UniProtKB/TrEMBL annotation:
[4Fe-4S] cluster binds at residues 153, 220. This is Phosphogluconate dehydratase. It comes from Sphingomonas taxi. Its EC number is 4.2.1.12. Residues 404-594 form the Dihydroxy-acid/6-phosphogluconate dehydratase C-terminal domain.
């Protein structure tokens, strides 16, 4: 193993020792004495079996695994619309393996792309906790010996895992649906957005471009949070090998899902290959997720999601771990917004099998993790294919396009491009893998806002034509649920294109598609938690320094210490936001995952 990866793993293991031991004891108790079919009463079982006629006799005989399907299907979210017929097909494939399958429950699945910039986005982060709770409800019946988790997008995969890990004695497989075919190139889409922000393109032109980009069922094709989720499931060994980026509606996609059901049927505790989820997701798998994130330039949202997933399994990972790993892990992929290619081009160039092979060969991934495939992580370095009408896996070969994927020895950058910033404003994260190096340091006057829409209005009025650090505060989990501030990307990009030095500092999030503008995000403590970001005033000189890892207001130390915090805006209501007050009130800091649910549970 790479010595720094090994050292960080050891650090996480030592820090997590007591919590991890308690978690493993929990799932062992649940396996031995928790609710399960042989212990349920006859009326309980009759209720569970009443909805199925074809499988009732098999369920009654209790001769095989009963698989609970937890689905995030809806047809408003393109990535999840593909799941429409999955349950009925999975029931057929379960029977082929001597098992049964039932839909255990559905979970909500919102589309951040629909709610970006509007009130609904303030529900987004805490939809993750809601999904976790819904997953727990689905699996609480005690009638399943395993589970298939159907989810792809931003908060859905983390939420499914957070809930499922509390049932970690059950074997589980995550089943993706794949990305939509390529439409309008992402750079062309971004150019139209910037033209619209400048008033050089109309609404119809913008809508045409967006519909050409997002045009069919499947995951969006840029490398944002949804596709980073799929990458992580591969490096953690929770998919069938190579399943992440195969397009919907293809024979290969169908056969990978069929293979996942068959594989799940063989992982129960009655057989000799018991692989419970709680054993698969260990400290090494969590480190693999972080390494994969850094090596591919993935979404900053996972600096929240990976710690939250880890906590659900009794594991503690912090931002220092990410920072240390980032300095040891090279960037070997360029996928939009870190490059011009989309995920379909990434897949064609070698995709996750190439990434995993390269990282394993360099000792940057733990190859000895317990995967759902039945083999070590080395099996994930082979690419799936249909040969003679059968599913098989073959060696991935060299990169098909070195502008997208490169070997470790020829990496795009020697490090992963994630930095932790610390200073008198607090701690924050910055992703520099898509930022030109001459923009890694910005020192400029602050322009302070409490709402991203106010930034947009100031831009339209021409008030932001200057070097500046835009500060948007009261955007943290306790203030308003930590929405993504994706609407800021086009105007800030325009200002940067005009030659101004521009940066963003916020206690909120940026989109998984954030790119060329330096953004110090997830600032902690947040403004509503008495964070020093609440002391910044218009005109203060702010220094964002991704080279030295600092984030400071260049204000006299005595004045800064004495300066009071600004008043907080009142809590917003409408669009259901008032119903999430409990999550906001209990939410812990970003570095711990920004979860109200986990904090309330003492995890």
């Amino acid at each position: 193993m790479n010595p720094e990866v090994s050292a960080v793993t050891d650090r996480i293991i030592e820090r997590s020792r007591e919590r991890r031991a308690a978690y493993l004891a929990l799932i062992e108790r649940e396996r031995e004495s928790g609710a399960r079919r042989p212990q349920l009463g006859c009326a309980n079982l009759a209720h569970a079996y009443a909805g199925t006629e074809e499988d009732r006799d098999t369920l009654r005989a209790d001769t095989g695994m009963n698989i609970g399907i937890v689905t995030a299907y809806n047809d408003m979210l393109s990535a999840h619309a593909v799941y429409y017929r999955y349950p009925e097909l999975m029931k057929v494939w379960a029977r082929e393996a001597g098992a049964t399958a039932q839909v255990a429950g559905g979970v909500p699945a919102m589309c951040d792309g629909v709610t970006q910039g509007y009130a609904g986005m303030e529900l987004s982060l805490f939809s993750r906790d809601t999904i976790a709770l819904a997953t727990a409800v689905a699996l609480s019946h005690g009638t399943f010996e395993g589970a298939a988790l159907l989810g792809i997008c931003d908060k859905i995969v983390p939420g499914l895992l957070m809930g499922a890990l509390r049932f970690g004695h059950l074997p589980m497989v995550l089943i993706p649906g794949g990305p939509m075919p390529s439409g309008l190139p992402n750079k062309a889409k971004a150019a139209v957005r910037e033209a619209y922000a400048e008033g050089k393109a109309g609404r119809e032109e913008l809508l045409d471009a967006e519909i050409q980009a997002y045009h069919s069922k499947g995951t969006c094709t840029f490398y944002g949070t949804a596709n980073t989720n799929q990458m992580m499931m591969e490096v953690m060994g929770l998919h069938m090998p190579g399943a992440a980026f195969v397009n919907p509606g293809t024979k290969l996609r169908q056969e990978l899902t069929r293979a996942a059901v068959h594989r799940l049927a063989g992982m129960g505790w009655r057989g000799n290959d018991y692989r419970p989820l709680g054993h698969c997701v260990d400290e090494r798998a969590i480190v693999n997720a972080a390494v994969g994130l850094l090596a591919t330039g993935g979404s900053t949202n996972h600096l929240l999601h990976v710690p939250a997933i880890a906590r659900a399994a009794g594991i503690v990972i912090d931002w220092e771990d990410f920072d240390r790993l980032s300095r040891a892990v090279p960037l070997i992929a360029r996928v939009y917004p870190n490059g011009a290619a989309d995920v379909n081009a990434f897949e064609a160039a070698g995709g996750m099998p190439f990434v995993i092979r390269e990282l394993l060969s360099a000792g940057l991934l733990h190859g000895d993790i317990t995967t759902v495939s039945g083999d070590s992580l080395a099996a994930y370095a082979d690419k799936p294919a249909i040969v003679d009408d059968r599913l098989t896996w073959q060696p991935v070969g060299d990169s098909g396009d070195t502008s997208i994927l490169r070997p470790v020895g020829e990496a795009f950058s020697p490090d992963g491009g994630m930095r932790i910033l610390a200073g008198n404003i607090g701690r924050a994260c910055i992703k520099v893998s898509a930022v030109d190096k001459e923009r890694w340091v910005v020192e400029a006057p602050a322009r302070v806002f409490h709402d991203q829409l106010d930034v947009l209005e100031a831009f339209k009025r021409g008030e932001l034509e200057q070097d500046m650090v835009v500060v948007v505060r009261f955007q943290g989990p306790r203030a308003n649920g930590m929405p993504e501030l994706h609407k800021l990307t086009p105007p800030l990009g325009v200002l940067q294109n005009r030659g101004f030095k521009v940066a963003l500092v916020t206690d909120g999030r940026m989109s998984g598609a954030s790119g060329k503008v330096p953004c110090a995000i997830h600032c902690s403590p947040e403004a509503l938690g008495h964070g020093a970001i609440g002391k910044i005033r218009d005109g203060d000189i702010i220094r964002v320094d991704a080279v030295n890892g600092t984030l400071d207001a260049l204000v006299d130390a005595a004045e800064w210490l004495a300066r009071p915090l600004c008043d907080a805006p009142g809590a917003a209501s409408g669009t259901g936001r008032e119903l999430f007050a409990m999550f906001r009130g209990l939410a812990d800091e970003a570095e711990k995952g920004a979860s109200g649910m986990l904090a309330a549970a003492g995890l």
